[in-house]
Amino acid sequence: MMRIAYLGLTAALALTACTGTTEAPKTASSNTPGPSTAPENPFPSTYTAYPGVPTVIRGATILDGEGGKIENGVVFLSGGKITAVGGPDTPIPADVTVFDGTGKYVTPGVIDIHSHLGDYPSPSVQALSDGNEATGPVTADVWAEHSVWPQDPGFSRALANGGVTALQILPGSANLFGGRGVTLKNVYARTQQGMKFPGAPYSLKMACGENPKRVYGSKGRQPSTRMGNIAVDRQTWIKAREYQKKRAANKEQTRDLSMETLADVLEGKILVQNHCYRADEMANVIDMSKEFGYKVTAFHHAVESYKIADLLKANNICSAMWADWYGFKMESYDGIRENIALIQNAGACAIVHSDDENGIQRLNQEAAKAIAAGKRMGINIPEEIAWEWLSYNPAKAMGIADQTGSLKVGKMADVVLWNGNPFSIYTRPERVWIDGALMYDANDPKRRPVSDFELGQIGAGDTK
Amino acid sequence: MNRKFLSALAGAAALAAFATPAIAQTIAITGGKLAIGDGSEAIENGTVVIVNGKVTAAGANVAIPAGAQRIDATGQWVTPGIVSGFSRVGLVEVEAVESTNDTEANKSPFSAAIDVSTAINPLANPIAISRTSGVTRAVVVPSAGNSIFAGQGAVIDLSNDMDDVTQPRAFQYVELGETGAAKAGGSRPAAQLMFRTLLEEAQDYTRNPAAYDGRSKDNLLLRVDAKALLPVIQGKVPLLVHVERGPDILGVIALRKEFPMLKIVLVGAAEGWRVAREIAAAKIPVITAGLTDLPASFETLAATQSNVGRMVEAGVLVALGLTDGNDAVQLRWAMQQAGNMVALQKIPGATGLSWGQALRAISSAPAEVMGMGDRIGSLKPGRAGDVVIWDGDPLELMSAPTAVFIDGKQQPLENRQTKLRDRYATPTPGALPKAYDR
Questions:
Q1: Do B328 and A327 touch (CB under 8 A)?
Q2: What ipTM, to 2 d.p.?
Q3: Is B428 in the A-facing interface, judged by CB distances under 8 Å?
Q4: CATH of the domain at A157
Q5: How many angstroms separate the CA atoms of B25 and A285, rounded?
Q6: Are B362 and B320 in contact (CB under 8 A)?
Q7: CA-to-CA separations, B198 to A452, B187, B220, B286, in angstroms, rounded
Q8: Alpha carbons B385 and B68: distance in angstroms, whole number
Q9: Nearest by CB to A357, which of B93, B294, B348?
Q10: Contact B112, B147 (CB under 8 A)
């Protein structure tokens, strides 16, 4: 009883301390909708930062996420923000918690741009399988957040083993237009709204290649080929442009959830995250995006990006990649371990992603493999540059780089203290802060989240 | 004429470079940081001697025979070739392209008799790709089709010759957990009953092969499948049993009361740590993936990365393998799995492995689990000359082999992926399209 009251009070204090960190929740009533206009955000974020204490980490090697590296550095977190980053002489107040980071590393929290946690949670039973609305190739009307089960044990593993502080949950790739993706803070909450990254833009998940043509071809309907994929895409964009023009002109029309999302894409409000493996297909998508006047933000999986690194650079499109996946399907046959390094080397935007509840626990290790593959072919990528793949570049491609993704003063204090060099196999997160709140501490079992699903089960609260 | 001669010459040169097995050949790899693979830690300035394809000595202060070909590994690491404790390599080219995937035959009338050694493709690209990363041997496991029994697995080498099978029909594989329940008609008790019934039918066959009618109304087991289970019930080959849940593991241990000759190996065993003492007391080894830490199903609720460390601490022989997927193409993840086990040592409350134990889990341990520890998996005298020279700590993500030997023969480190890499080192075409760059 006492404890609950006390906790409530701390939470309230934290709210006051952190008012700057979160936007006031928007509701339908805060808009002045036209006749066919959607409310701005009917499912607003209710996330608020948890309480933190002013904290200094000193003596660690800092990788700032934007290509900077400071040896024997100082990071100061307060009020949920990064308030100072610098060398050993950086001034810090006297009365703050200080962690000795000697021999350790401090980085921005890892950001995974491609996750299905919550939508394809553990346990992977059919009853919880909510990642693909595979009933039609165009389901731009669905929103991944409405499938997110906030009790997925996977969030805790991504935090404790992977140092993941933010992640984008995307619908699956069965459909050409899979639906809206949502960006979450990796903080457990009772509702998805409670995890939702305040102010993050939405994404549209699209897919090329084998999946849509297989899923619908096997049902005897369009698309059953790659040319069918593009044809259905283009027909859909034609309709979307008509809808968008009417909407922009404030003309009466029945609201259409699919068209609302696509119109927002055409107006640049929603980012396009496009699942695509093969180089030739990415080139087709780039031309299609120009035909209809939208921008592809990132190609996901992109195992053949290395074949068209120049084209991707010229079009300012990121590639979200695995380090070494290949051979699991025909369109992944040409995957090579140098993909990430070759994209970096070409000056294009490289991102390490997981698409996997296990891989998300080791994105730092994936980056290390990519550095090593590059080095073996004479491409030397410093570790401070490689960290951009894990936080700043995904943050950019998710539209949240102004708030997180690097250790810059004023940004959210989404920070990981690693117990060694994070590109070593022997290193794990020691502490993880999200908005300045200590959400994981390897030395404190009470700072190890246990989802409702695992509570009361064997092994609950164990090191995982 | 000229052209023919040239290619013959090139062939001869290649042979000379990679293989001269006919005459006595002695290789001494010197100066490297050497790990035997038996659980001990690496030693500085070690020497490995390979004579006629087999290790004759390894350690510090090893005498180098006169006339040995010396390979200087100063500044590098030397280990036994990596052994994948669980894979489907050689059975698959592209996992989702059915015609290239020979792991499972769910429309076949046969089960236990299916023999993967008859279809290992030594030219499968995943073999060359795995070899480049230091994997030299693999346990190859069939996938269960329409029976709880999947068939007979093999142990293979990953060399570039056409003869990759080290041990055909090395073991039998059976599903007894959730998957087994589904294969047996829908429940665990049905799977248990199926298992008992099929083994009893195999015993009937053993007693009187001529009288066994595999097609009678009452028999579930075909004659060939009954025959294939013979070495299993006689304890001549291991029986790999896939279960995950703690109670299911105890159930498997109990089966030995009825079938005392069975040489059981547990596969998966995500909750093995819960019953580690019982597994150790029954002297049953385990093959598992190590990094399984999510309740992917209701039979892995207690999954934790500490599973391996806790079982090893209790005295269980544990080998690492790809029991959680990616088993046909990602054998090179073995080193990452092992290294992560070492990382756990620094986490309060977790149980990991020492470096030497971790290497063992991907070298001598899988060999011993297969009953082949005297033939492969370590650098003890008499073992196959499978040796890898690494440019750094083999368990580290940044390290890679600089030389790989299998049966004492140096292996090429090129593969389809390195060719693609070289072709696209610069993405734009030169004077001719990329298709002309070879």
A1: yes
A2: 0.93
A3: yes
A4: 3.20.20.140
A5: 57
A6: yes
A7: 42, 16, 7, 24
A8: 14
A9: B294
A10: yes
Hey, which residues 125-164 in chain A have their CB within 8 Å of chain B?
A: 125, 153-154, 157, 161
Q: How far apart are the C-alpha atoms of A274 and A7, rounded to whole Å?
A: 43
Q: CA-to-CA distance for A406 and A109, rounded, in angstroms?
A: 8
| The token pair that represents B33 in the structure block | 């940081």
The DSSP-derived string for A191-222 is SSTTTB-TTPPPEEEEE-SHHHHHHHHTTT-S
Q: State the total domains in chain A.
A: 1
pLDDT in tens, B231-281: 999 999 999 999 999 999 999 999 999 999 999 999 999 999 999 999 999
Residue A454 lies in a domain: no
pLDDT tens digit sequence for B369-407: 999 999 999 999 999 999 999 999 999 999 999 999 999
Pair of tokens at residue A179: 């639906």
In a domain, A288, yes or no: yes
Q: Which domain holds residue A352?
A: 7-447
Q: Is A124 left (phi over 0), alpha (psi -120 to 50) or beta?
A: beta
Chain A 38-77, residues with CB within 8 Å of chain B CB atoms: none
Q: Which domains does chain B have, with CATH numbers?
A: 3-80+389-422 (2.30.40.10), 82-376 (3.20.20.140)
pTM for this prediction:
0.93
How many other CB atoms are there within 10 angstroms of residue B38's CB atom? 19
CB contact under 8 A, A324 and B330: yes
Return the amino acid letter for B136: T
Instruction: Decide if B343 touches A, using CB distance below 8 A.
Output: yes
Task: Dump pLDDT digits (tens) for A219-256.
Answer: 999 999 999 999 999 999 999 999 999 999 999 999 99
Work out the number of other CB atoms within 10 angstroms of the CB of residue A450: 18
Q: Select from B195, B179, B118, B199 the least CA-distant residue to B152.
A: B118
